[in-house]
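One such shown below:

_____
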Amino acid sequence: MDRPVARDAVLAVAMAFVTVAPALARERIEAGKLTCDVSAGVGMVIGSKRQVYCTFEPTTGPEEVYTGSFTRYGLDLGATTGGTMVWVVYAPTDHPAGALAGKYAGASAEATVYAGLGTNVLVGGSGRTIALQPVSVQGQVGFNFAAGMAGLELSFVR
């Protein structure tokens, strides 16, 4: 895939996500920032699964740590090194420690030709009350093209 075309496709999808994500977060407040380190992986045509280690920096209160997995369903071709994903977290005003634990689902797009970009908008967590809006696109190195549905499963560590 031509690099400018891949970049433009990911940026177009990212812009669509950015316009949809605030609607997902209407009933919620900005609760903090979730940063996840993602393991290296290989796309298996119809999907992939990668381990994540995440830290949640709430606007008030102590930092929280989560582990889990990021799964993509749909077109996923290629291999990449590990990367980082960052989201702004929108949650109800009364979210206890560990509230981000649970399953999330949403849309995902990524294109990598040596250095790449990707974005994921997800909703889920405790009672499906948490919305994760990309604050920046993910960065990684390798060769990969992916588009489809994404799932994130988080377990509260501390």
